From TrEMBL:
Its EC number is 5.6.2.4. Belongs to the helicase family. UvrD subfamily. Residues 290-540 form the UvrD-like helicase C-terminal domain. This is DNA 3'-5' helicase. It catalyses: Couples ATP hydrolysis with the unwinding of duplex DNA by translocating in the 3'-5' direction; ATP + H2O = ADP + phosphate + H(+). One of its GO terms (cellular component) is cytosol. Keywords: ATP-binding, Helicase, Hydrolase, Isomerase, Nucleotide-binding. GO terms for biological process: recombinational repair.
Length: 664
């Protein structure tokens, strides 16, 4: 058997077809668990062993340094060295360092290591009041703008069209963006987005640079192609220079980073751009049991059909395993305790703690699971973020609470005292701010209030000093060694990972899908794909759970995630909801009657204002109102789609329709 034949041996039929397709253009649709890394490394090795590729002329582009390292390691094991496997930024940096004297007239400029410092200066020049959280959100918006090739002038319209939740008015963000760019030009520095932009410019505008780079790299492989953004695609096009020696690998069902600028249309439209492309689908799932695979297929099968490439339908290759479990709980602490107990049982049965994961939608959900696992003596590792009590906003809050406890004992109820202290650092009840980092901060501080509420329910006489002591005990317990621990991770942070047993928790509408996605069908569908990613992380055991109330004794206003419709058994304790594909809303009993009254009110209001009905309030918001029946403006403001302006314009009328007193 020749070296080339040996490379193909052991691959399944579809993997072998993809590996043997060494001439581009090639599109490999690789479903979860189908062996995509094995396929692309064997494809490169086969091209080298057959003499089609010179190793040094192959550039394999990945999204993480870890993935690039894994590619190099596997290629080495196949007897292939010299292939360049790098991230977009690493490849651009290497090229720009070499060509800087020709392109920029001097040595490579200094890179901005701390973008927040430059953003802070730009924000200050425009007299914006910022903290670290809002600066992170501003930096995130600038990064989004640059990766989508939006200029400061373009930004406001582009941000509105994309439904961005901006930390300040779009015009203010655009002004900061412009000042940020001016500051870099003045200092002669580049940021990481500039690396890609300037390298692309060098190839586009300097023929000698393009000739040299394109002579060096003749064959390209791009992994995770569904996550490519317009800036990365521009650089890739500059590298290619009109050639088609390109292999892309991706999964349309795992497109979960549109909020960062990723554009799945590059993958979905690949055959349109390259009509002669060979498209190979990898659908044999070697990771998960047929039961997990079946659930994943049913979940993603409910999504609307997207234009472009055909969807993937996984086929489980492992032996049968247990059916996925669906569990409803009365409240979040009960849900967390049940998950922790199940983790304890798995560990006691011999499952390594590192082979267990608890996945949630937002980082702030981790706190109750950190506490529950600590209570049952199961170590854990928090992935993709700091431990709850190590987060800057939590440390700051604990210090302030400790100071308040030492400085007063005036009989103020504990929950009121905690809210007062957190209000001093900008927290406001029912007012989650726009922006990812700002919302995470708000959620973390809200978790402290929730903990105070829960403790008071158990110990009505608990003082602020006692609460601070309780926080210290929890923080201390979490500093125990956690090398071998259950993984706690957000669904985004879990992408690319897998475990024997996975618990997907907190599956209620407003969390999965997240509330701010409800106004845009495309955003809701990205939330479905995010849940699909979470489900496909499980090898053998999968549990999906939700709770009807945030705390014990709550009024249970929540519905389980709409994505579970048709998948989970009907418990009979929730409001019935149709598939997210359907435009109509179906509610039972009194909720349905109220929904109809709200729609009638909305129609009359919209007609009087000569605007479309959805401009007043959309169906998702009306549904939330009908389900929860808010009794005050404060309760109404907590619902998705009710901002300060709409609360002012429609709040009293909505409460009157509900039958509540708006003065309450």
């Amino acid at each position: 058997m020749t070296g080339a034949e040996a490379v193909l041996a052991g691959l399944d039929d579809e993997q072998g077809t993809a590996a043997a397709a060494v001439r581009g253009p090639v599109c490999i649709l690789a479903g979860a668990g189908t062996g995509k890394t094995r396929t692309i490394t064997h494809r490169i090795a086969y091209g080298v062993h057959t003499g089609v590729y010179v190793p040094e002329q192959v550039l394999a582009v990945t999204f993480t340094a870890r993935a690039a390292g894994e590619l190099r390691g596997r290629l080495s094991g196949l007897g292939v060295g010299g292939v360049q496997a790098r991230t977009f930024h690493a490849a651009a940096l290497r090229q720009l360092r070499y060509f800087a004297p020709r392109v920029l007239g001097g040595p490579m400029p200094e890179l901005v290591e701390n973008k927040l410092r430059v953003v802070a200066g730009a924000a200050s020049r425009h007299r914006l009041t910022t903290d670290r959280t809002s600066l992170r959100d501003l930096a995130g918006e600038i990064e989004w703008a640059k990766t989508t090739l939006a200029t400061p002038d373009d930004y406001p319209a582009r941000a509105r069209a994309a439904g961005r939740e901006t930390p300040f008015e779009p015009a203010a963000v655009a002004a900061v963006y412009a000042s940020y760019e001016q500051a870099k030009q003045r200092d002669g520095t580049l940021d990481f987005e500039d690396l890609l932009l300037v390298t692309a410019f060098a190839l586009e505008e300097h023929r000698d640079v393009a000739t040299e780079v394109r002579g060096q790299y003749r064959h390209f492989v791009v992994d995770e192609y569904q996550d490519v953004n317009p800036l990365q695609q521009r650089l890739l096009d500059a590298w290619l220079g009109g050639r088609a020696e390109l292999c892309v690998v991706g999964d349309p069902h795992q497109t979960i980073y549109s909020f960062t600028g990723a554009d799945p249309d590059y993958l979905l439209g690949f055959p349109d751009r390259y009509p002669d492309a060979e498209v190979v689908a990898l659908e044999r799932d070697y990771r998960s049991t047929p039961e997990v695979v079946g659930l994943a297929n049913r979940l993603i099968g409910m999504a609307p059909r997207r234009a472009g490439l055909p969807g993937l339908r996984l086929r489980g290759q492992r032996a049968a395993g247990p059916e996925p479990r669906f569990v409803e709980h009365p409240d979040e602490p009960t849900e967390a305790a049940a998950v922790a107990a199940a983790c304890r049982a798995l560990v006691d049965a011999g499952v390594p703690a590192a082979e267990i994961a608890v996945l949630f939608r937002i980082n702030a959900q981790s706190q109750v699971y950190e506490a529950a696992l600590t209570d049952v003596g199961v170590p854990y590792v928090l992935k993709g973020g700091e431990r709850f009590f190590e987060r800057p906003e939590v440390r700051e809050a604990v210090l302030l609470l400790r100071g308040a406890a030492a400085g007063r004992d005036d009989g103020t109820p504990l929950v009121t005292a905690v809210r007062d202290v957190l209000a001093s650092v900008g927290w406001a009840e029912h007012r989650p701010p726009p922006g990812g980092a700002a919302r995470d901060r708000w959620q973390s501080l809200s978790a402290l209030v929730d903990l105070a509420v829960d403790l008071v329910a158990e110990r009505p006489d608990l003082t602020l000093a006692g609460f601070v002591g309780h926080l210290a005990e929890r923080a201390g317990a979490q500093h125990a060694p956690t090398v071998q621990g259950v993984t706690l991770a957000s669904m985004h942070a879990a992408k690319g990972l897998e475990w024997d047993a996975v618990f997907v928790v907190g599956l209620v509408d407003g969390v999965v899908p997240i509330a701010q996605s409800l106004a845009r069908p495309d955003a809701v569908e990205e939330e479905r794909r995010l849940l699909y990613v979470a489900v496909t992380r499980a090898r053998e055991q999968l549990t999906l759970s939700w709770s009807l109330s945030r705390q014990p004794g709550g009024k249970r206003p929540r519905s389980r995630s709409r994505f579970l419709e048709g998948l989970a058994p009907d418990t009979g304790t929730r409001v019935r909801r149709p598939s997210a594909r359907r435009a109509e809303v179906v509610l039972d009993g009194a909720a349905g009657e109220l929904f109809d009254r709200l729609r009638a009110w909305r129609s009359a209001t919209a007609e009087a204002a000569s605007v479309p009905a959805y401009v007043v309030l959309n169906d998702a918001t009306l549904q939330a109102i009908a389900e929860t029946r808010p009794g005050s403006l404060s309760e109404l403001s907590a619902l998705p789609g009710i901002g300060a302006r709409k609360l002012e314009m429609y709040g009293a009328d909505v409460l009157a329709t509900v039958g509540a007193d708006s003065s309450a």
